[in-house]
Amino acid sequence: MEIIAHNKYYQIVIDKIRSNPDGYIQLLNDEIVEKVKFVFRHQQRQCEYLSTLYLIYKITNTLQLYTYDTHGKPICEITRHNLSITHTDKYIGLMISDKGYVGIDMEQTDRNLQRISTKFINSIEQQWVKSNLDLIKIWTAKEALYKMIQNASPDFKNDYIVFNNYTAIVTKPKQKKLTLSSYHKNDYYITWVFEEKTDE
After folding, report:
1. Do 183 and 190 touch, CB atoms closer than 8 A?
2. pLDDT tens-digit profile of 144-188?
3. Cβ-count burial 39-62 (b if 16+ within 10 Å, e if not)
4. Which of 87, 79, 65 is nearest to 143 (CA)?
5. pTM of the entire predicted model
6. Which of 3, 33, 43, 72 has the largest count of CB atoms under 10 Å?
7. CB 184 within 8 A of CB 100
8. H-type helices in 117-175, by residue range?
9. How many C-beta neighbours within 10 Å does residue 118 have?
10. What is the distance between the alpha carbons of residues 13 and 53, in angstroms, rounded to a whole number?
11. Domains of the chain: which residue ranges?
């Protein structure tokens, strides 16, 4: 497990996904592993879910499942921390907070986004995009924003603008400007966003 960020607002960790769900028995327990194997048919999905439970346990020191709030965002079943989950074929990433809303996305840097870029890049972003890595930066930013925002728009091209200074403007459901953070290591790129809860 690698700690990417740890501050008073949130924590971010990543880990390699194990290839066999039974590898989680000693890390969690056999009852949870068997339950997950019963719920999910595919071994890859089983391992992704168990990886998430393991990271939640390591951060909260509580063995717990996660569920979803009324907006479809994942939350810890017992401690009620807000979660955002991302994974590639090899890695799982988790962002967790009890202070606000979180969104994280991770992509492998060898993923070629050129072919689908017209579906999510707008004219403002086209002015600074120079490489596939720039496309990955924008894609992960928009995915992270989508995961964090309540009632988020699925229109990545028109309702999100990412600037090369790593700020973003979201136009729906209400307009706001947000600051993004990122981490690049070898074969993956991670972007995350955090918004503190306010009393309304």
Report:
1. yes
2. 999 999 999 999 999 999 999 999 999 999 999 999 999 998 889
3. ebeeeeebbbbbbbbbbbeebbee
4. 87
5. 0.92
6. 33
7. no
8. 123-126, 132-148
9. 10
10. 12
11. 2-100, 108-185
